[in-house]
């Protein structure tokens, strides 16, 4: 894939040492949707609680989603303050002048708009508007600086094919609680499923046959098992079948075959359980 079409995944440090995968660019989020990756919008305003029902950017990805996107050549990682520092060091004096000119142009447009708005308000109250007596300090304090949610400069300065990308991928992969889950995710994506976190339905993933805005999910997929070593007792099968029936989904178990060093391989088998005559 052309490097210019790859999306940027920011690994934001938090409780996880490897970072939380986030996507901030609206255009990148649209691309992800077209590629069968929905993610979860998490952006909110702490000062406006009612806004929590209508979340916005950034889009949070599951670790498996981020790994698959980079592994498929559709995305790249960036992280750490050193990335921002390196990008800032590439700025030239002329680029800084252009940025200041754009900012001053924005301020001029805001001043004009606010003066017109104030004049209309005064006219509606029948009070003559004297521009010379208008409070300059109050006007200047109401101007705002628009901060973009993404930086083209950062994306342009990252070596998307470097050893650093592989290092970040391995670190994120090793941070998985169950590395077999990545191969389960990858196998389902190869069969064109949309996948989302499945905790609310008692699984690792929930699988949709298409875009979640158009379809209900069909399967709740359990955390990956070692195909040759992990047991699956009858009680698990019965409780899983009951759970699947309760949420009107197939209860799916995935077995990942491991090599001698217990490293997962891309050999995944799926088994579905449901109660006959129900649902």
Describe the overall structure.
This protein is an alpha/beta fold and 279 residues long. The chain has three domains: 1-79 and 150-176, tRNA intron endonuclease, N-terminal domain (MutS, DNA mismatch repair protein, domain I); 92-142; 178-278, Trna Endonuclease, Chain: A, domain 1 (3-Layer(aba) Sandwich), CATH 3.40.1350.10. The chain is built from nine helices and eleven strands. A hairpin with a 7-residue loop joins strand 6 and strand 7. Helix 2 packs across helix 8 (180-190). It is elongated and about 85 Å long. The model has no long low-confidence stretch (mean pLDDT 82). Residues 17-76 form the TSEN34 N-terminal domain. It comes from Lachancea lanzarotensis. One of its GO terms (biological process) is tRNA-type intron splice site recognition and cleavage. This is tRNA-splicing endonuclease subunit Sen34.
Describe the secondary-structure layout.
Blueprint: E1 7-12, E2 20-23, H1 26-34, E3 40-43, E4 56-60, H2 63-71, E5 75-78, H3 81-88, H4 93-124, H5 136-141, H6 152-157, H7 163-174, H8 180-190, E6 194-197, E7 205-208, E8 219-221, E9 225-226, H9 234-246, E10 250-258, E11 264-273
Domain tRNA intron endonuclease catalytic: 182-261
GO biological process, one term: tRNA-type intron splice site recognition and cleavage
Active site: 208, 216, 249
């Amino acid at each position: 894939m052309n490097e210019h079409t790859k999306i940027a995944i920011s690994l934001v440090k938090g409780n996880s040492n490897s970072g939380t995968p986030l996507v901030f660019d609206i255009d990148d989020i649209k691309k992800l949707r077209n590629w069968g990756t929905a993610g979860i919008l998490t952006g909110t305003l702490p000062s406006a609680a009612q806004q929590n029902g209508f979340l916005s950017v950034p889009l949070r990805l599951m670790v498996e989603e981020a790994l698959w996107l980079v592994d498929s050549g559709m995305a790249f990682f960036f992280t750490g303050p050193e990335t921002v520092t390196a990008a800032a060091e590439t700025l030239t004096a002329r680029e800084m002048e252009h940025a200041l000119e754009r900012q001053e142009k924005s301020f001029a447009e805001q001043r004009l708009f606010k003066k017109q708005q104030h004049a209309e308000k005064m006219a509606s109250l029948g009070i003559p508007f004297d521009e010379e007596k208008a409070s300059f300090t109050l006007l200047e304090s109401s101007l705002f600086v628009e901060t973009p949610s993404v930086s083209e400069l950062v994306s342009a300065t990252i070596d998307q094919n470097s050893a650093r990308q592989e290092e970040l991928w391995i670190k994120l992969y090793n941070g998985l609680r169950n590395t077999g889950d990545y191969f389960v995710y990858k196998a389902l994506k190869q069969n064109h499923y949309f996948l989302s976190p499945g905790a609310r339905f008692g699984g690792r993933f929930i699988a949709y046959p298409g875009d979640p805005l158009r379809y209900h999910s069909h399967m709740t997929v359990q955390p990956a098992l070692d195909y040759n070593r992990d047991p699956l007792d009858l009680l698990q099968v019965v409780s899983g079948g009951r759970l699947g029936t309760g949420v009107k989904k197939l209860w799916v178990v995935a077995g990942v075959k491991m090599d001698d060093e217990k490293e997962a391989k891309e050999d995944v088998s799926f088994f579905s359980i449901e109660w006959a005559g129900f649902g």
